[in-house]
Design a protein that fits this description.
The chain is α/β, with parallel strands linked by helices and 433 residues long. The protein is built from 17 helices and 15 strands. The protein has a 7-stranded mixed β-sheet with strand order 2-10-9-8-7-3-6, sandwiched between helices. A 4-stranded antiparallel β-sheet has the order 11-12-15-14. The structure holds pyridoxal-5'-phosphate. The site of pyridoxal-5'-phosphate has 15 residues, from α6 and β8. Pyridoxal-5'-phosphate (PLP) binds at residues 135-137, 163, 167, 208-209, 211-212, 241, 243-244, 269, 280, 367.
Length: 433
């Protein structure tokens, strides 16, 4: 226990640390003095430096960049899709000052914040109209609320799923003020099941794309065109929650344009297979999109200029024939990753590491393509105390997220851009020291 006379005066520390924000110095100095007084901490050799370290810790941002060496591309815990150069430039361009968010520069009249994103989305997917909100969960909630509140929403029992993070289809329908009508069975649902459930109370038919799970074996789901014909004849909107929402073909998922061909409205995420910022996109029939946009909930879920700028930049990339980084990473094949893995392994060996290049299996992540293996290449490191080493990597600067496999540290290069390799090497060196 420290006696009072060994403890420094707060005022002395404030004077010594005049370059730091005074209120933080005062509160951190008091906290440190108090823990030394009560015996929960021992007295530091240099009080001013100890307080400085505490203040700097307080000021350090919690949210910071991570090198993703997991091979999981749309890693939900790591923010899903990394933004491409153009999206970053757009974001930066509107972040620091004002922009024409709701101003039509040609006329000087009030404009619409969604114009750029809406026009580009419409032409990219061939839709009559488009809308963007905070995320896909919000998009589905908004659409169901605007089109079916107080009425019934018909869903196949095979699609009453939980997407994750407490997004459960029955609960979203209830939150939207609609009543769920379940049809069919878990494994088999037919068009006639829907036909039998449609009535005067029907507000919408909802299809949920099985993004993050598969039902296999003895299964049947309604023919898309026949279900569309049924909905059209009954004048009931057919809504699809597509989840991952690829704009590009060849990713192993139906594209938004494909889905739109047999649906009135499609809802999907901006930061899954599209590869942009977090957003929820709605495309389809103009009258239905308009009802969603006019609903008061839209105002609560709308996008801010930062996300809009990043989203527009991502969509311009598609129009210009470029693909966002996440899409490019999903397409990387093992043959193209192998030379990079071998080169990195030999650099590491030269630096004294027990490193070997090896074949890996990556994932799409973000609840997309759950069963799809992404064969790639990476580097395995043999280190003393694998788990402790992985922790040191995580808490380092930059933070690195890697996996443990067979007692080794596995670095999958699918998700490490070539330009990040030097930073990765530095982080590994720091974690070894
Ligand atoms: C991911 C997903 C959602 C939620 O989308 P967010 O953009 O994360 O809100 C909803 N439905 C399906 C089918 C999904 O795959």
């Amino acid at each position: 226990m420290q006696t009072r006379r060994h403890l420094p005066a707060i005022g002395t520390l404030v004077t010594a640390l005049g370059d730091l924000p005074r209120p933080l110095v005062v509160s951190e100095a008091r906290a440190l003095v108090e823990s030394v007084r009560s015996g929960t901490a021992s007295a530091p050799a240099d009080w001013a430096e100890a307080v400085r370290a505490r203040v700097n810790t307080r000021l350090a941002p919690v949210l910071r960049p991570v090198i993703n060496a997991t091979g999981v591309v749309l890693h939900t815990n790591l923010g899903r899709a990394p933004l491409g150069d153009r999206a970053q430039r757009r974001l930066h361009a509107v972040a620091s000052g004002w922009c024409n968010l709701e101003l039509h520069l040609e006329t000087g009249e009030r404009g619409e914040r969604l114009t750029g994103v809406e026009q580009r989305l419409r032409s990219l997917v061939g839709a009559e109209a488009a809308l963007a909100v905070n995320n896909n969960a919000a998009a589905v909630l908004l659409v169901l609320t605007a089109l079916a509140a107080g009425r019934e929403v018909i869903v196949s029992r095979g699609e009453l799923v939980e997407i994750g993070g407490s997004f459960r289809v029955p609960e979203v329908i209830a939150a939207g003020g609609a009543r769920l009508v379940e049809v069919g069975t878990t494994n088999r649902t037919r068009v006639r099941d829907f036909a039998g459930a449609i009535g005067t109370q029907t507000g919408a038919i909802l299809r949920v794309h099985p993004s993050n799970f598969r039902v296999s074996g003895f299964t049947e789901s309604p023919d898309r065109a026949a279900l569309r014909a049924l909905a059209t004849a009954a004048n009931v909107p057919l809504i699809e929650d597509l989840g991952s929402g690829a704009l590009a073909a060849g990713l192993g998922e139906p594209t938004v344009a494909d889905a739109l061909a047999t649906t009135d409205l499609v809802c999907f995420s901006g930061d899954k297979l599209l590869g942009g910022p977090q957003a929820g996109l709605v495309v389809g029939r103009a009258d239905l999109v308009q009802r969603a946009r006019k609903h008061p909930l839209y105002r609560a879920l709308r996008l801010d200029r930062l996300v809009l700028a990043a989203l527009e930049g991502t969509l311009i990339d598609y129009e210009a024939g470029a693909e966002p980084p996440a899409v490019a990473m999903l397409r990387l094949d093992a043959a193209s990753l192998r030379p990079r893995a071998e080169a990195l392994a030999s650099r590491l060996q030269e630096l004294g590491w027990a490193a070997t290049a090896l074949a890996t299996i990556g994932r799409a992540g973000g609840g997309s393509l759950p069963e799809l293996d992404l064969p790639g290449w990476g580097v395995a490191l043999t280190v003393e105390g694998t788990d402790a080493f992985l922790t040191r990597l995580r808490v380092g600067t930059p933070a690195v997220l890697a996996r443990a496999a067979d007692g080794q540290v596995l670095l999958d290069l699918r998700t490490v851009p070539a330009g990040e390799e030097n930073a990765l090497l530095a982080a590994l060196a720091a974690a070894r020291a």
